[in-house]
Amino acid sequence: MSASFVLLIDDDPVVRSLASGILRKKGYEVFVAKTGEEGLHLVEERQPDLVITDFQMPGMSGLEVVEGINRVDPHIPVIVLTAYGDTALTIESIQAGAFDFIEKPINSRELLETVKSGLDTVAASKKAHDLTPESQAGKSHYNLVVGKAPAMRELFKTVGRLTQSRMNVMISGETGTGKGRFAQLIHNVSPNSDAPLVYFNCRKLDESGDHPGVDGHVPEHLHELLVKKYRQAADGSLIMDEIGMLPLEMQHTLMDILNEQFHQEDSMQSARPRIISLTTGYAGEKVREGKFLQDLYYNLNVFSLQIPPLRRRKEDIPELVKDLLPELNAELGKNEGRIGEGVMSYLQAYDWPGNVRELKNILMQALALSYGEVLEKKYIHILDGVTEKNVHETSEERGAVSLAEVEQEHIAHVLGLTGWNKQEAARILGITRPTLNAKIEKYGLSR
Fold first, then answer.
1. Residue 44's domain is classified under what CATH number?
2. Omega of the bond prior to 105 within 30 degrees of 0, cis?
């Protein structure tokens, strides 16, 4: 494998000498620039794998360098050198699109770790997007793992840091945020990406009716299924969807498996998968309620990731739309590659309670209704009767509403984002299934 190219931009010759020496000793190919202008010229000419730039420089500032590199190639990670304790500049650099920052004086270990993390993150992203349709679940499974919002950049950095790790990961987030996509991404950038990726749906067990509840008896075949899935994962990854809904008896079974593997880990024949647990956020609550084994929770939640809801990263909507359109066009036999006037601002005005999944459904409906090569705003119909007017209107314009109206709207939202899965909706709402049925009838709600 060829050495990675690192561009170092700094007007201080001492810093250039120190940092380039540290990097070259680790096998990186380093070239330097004394000014931001010279650095941007080298970015276009040499196409580095990573850039390190000082923030305070005569002429073009580090902030302008970050913005300029993002215009040339937004996939190049940029690490900014800032003065110790300069919080404002640090925040500005991250907001401008910097991958990370290092405070001066430079610590060699921190420098090398940050550079490696940046390169690993880019490699992880490239690997995810380069997957062919024949590889595992196909490229479409990675289209939703996009985003430039600060929270998403931090997540991608974290995934990059996990590339050489085998630790268990717990991913939490609202329904429809793309937890499964992140789980698949973590597997595909892991050292054992060629090993099996196995999926186990704890929610379906709860809905199956094969047992009376988490405190009731679980049929033996479900215990055997769990053991089988774990063994199938071998030294790959086992995704456990909605881990918080795993029946208590089966939690003991999983804990027994993990304890057995722990005692056998010195054996060359022992295969131990990474467990990637997905949860809407209730696993921790169930530990406090005594419905989830504390030891198991700590075994599974060695490293945690929190996926932000779409309403907190609306700046990512344009990128998500552009990534989703090719997949949806192919599915519907359409060829709509252009976005009509006002579409993006309309989509960004909505809070998306169903997150990325709801966005995908809305786009699919719009494509099905439209014709031509332009996706027009008139074909975008937000669910639950939300119109452009009440998306934009303020609380003062809307006026006071009754508690019943708020409850009706919230229940409709939850039913919509769960696809009218009443058991799941009742769980999210914190009410019983009969109570939910009564409220659906009371408010005249329907699909």
1. 3.40.50.2300
2. yes
| Residue 144 and residue 56 share a domain | no
Structure confidence at residue 136 (pLDDT): 36
Specify the 3-state DSSP secondary structure of 172. strand
pLDDT at 119: 87
Range of the domain at 406: 400-443
In this structure, what DSSP letter does residue 244 have? G
- Picking from 44, 117, 103, the residue whose alpha carbon sits closest to that of residue 33 is 44
**Nearest by Cα to 417 from 405, 406, 429:** 429
Mean pLDDT, consecutive 10-residue stretches, the chain (447 aa), reads 85 93 94 94 92 91 90 88 67 76 88 88 58 37 62 79 81 90 86 89 63 60 90 93 90 90 50 91 81 92 90 89 86 80 88 90 86 80 53 42 68 75 74 79 75
Q: How many domains does the chain have?
A: 4
Residue 80: inside a domain? yes
Q: What interhelical angle do 87-95 and 62-72 show, nearest 10?
A: 10
Exposed, middle or buried: residue 223 (CB in 10 Å: 0-12, 13-18, 19+)? middle
Instruction: Choose one of 381, 397, 413: the last residue of a domain.
Output: 397
State the Cα–Cα distance between residues 116 and 200, nearest whole angstrom. 33
Residue 157: φ, ψ to 5°: -65, -40
Q: Is residue 93 part of a domain?
A: yes
Residue at 178: amino acid letter: G
d(CA 418, CA 176): 9
**What pLDDT shows up at residue 289?**
86
Beta-bridge partner residues of 303: 169
Predicted local distance difference test score (pLDDT) of residue 90? 63
Q: Is residue 24 a contact partner of residue 30, using CB atoms and an 8 Å limit?
A: yes
The domain boundary, picked from 359, 379, 397, lies at: 397
Domain assignment present for residue 124? The answer is no
Q: How many residues are recorded in the chain?
A: 447
Quote the pTM value.
0.58
Per DSSP, which regions of 280-380 are E strands? Answer: 303-306, 338-339, 374-375
Contact 261, 214 (CB under 8 A): no
The reported pLDDT for the residue numbered 71 is 86
In a domain, 130, yes or no: no
Cα 2 to chain centroid distance, Å, stands at 30
Beta bridge partners of 5: 29
Same domain, 190 and 285: yes
One domain, residues 153 and 298 = yes
Q: Which three-class secondary structure state does DSSP give residue 302?
A: coil
- Is residue 252 within 8 A of residue 292, CB to CB? The reply is no
Neighbours of 398 (CB within 10 A): 10
